[in-house]
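Team,

Forwarding the record for the chain on the shared tracking sheet. I've put the sequence and predicted structure together so nobody has to dig through attachments.
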Amino acid sequence: MSANLKYRRVLLKVSGEALMGKQSYGIDVATLERIAGDVKDAVDAGVQMCLVVGGGNIFRGLSGVAEGIDRATADYMGMLATIMNAIAMQAALERVGLPTRVQSAIPITSVCEPYIRRRAIRHMEKGRAVIFAAGTGNPFFTTDTAAALRAAEMSCDGMFKATQVDGVYSADPKKVKDAVRYDFLSYHDVLSQDLKVMDASAISLSRENGIPIVVFSIHEKGNLSQVLQGKGRFTVIAEKA
């Protein structure tokens, strides 16, 4: 492993919206392949990688609820969307030469493996990437919470949240020109200021397990490897700096 890397095993959380690229819906293949290349570079450098991919580019549970669909039903539809994205990401990762396994919290064995913690850890130890699909397998929980849960189960050194911007801001920087970007925040800061980084249960779960959250932009090629070395622009959320 490269001596410059600060993390040995990480979970990368990619939102479904990040996979859209500049499209308004679905998967942008060029964006998918760029992210896959970044993950491959990280694994080649010696990092054990697992991923959780959202489903908002295909279906959002809360949007379905607004349209009159029962919340539990809408959330299950969202979980199925994450499986579609996970399979697409697996294909992209294997195109760049990284063996990958998808594990789903909802059994769908014709398509991917069921989620088995010890098997997932073994895959990573063998140099494979593991993508966790279908959230926690339960309605009423977001993929952010699923990411925090899997990061704890995998004993990850950090959870990397790939977003549209280069860190956490005091307000939406696309709407507020003088929004302040933070280099560091405590878990308490995020919860008390109601910063829209991840939902409260994901933040609390990360705090309980001592897993730092690193928020960075996924839109620049090579950014993941830079951030893994502690370089570039990002925000760290942890107990203390």
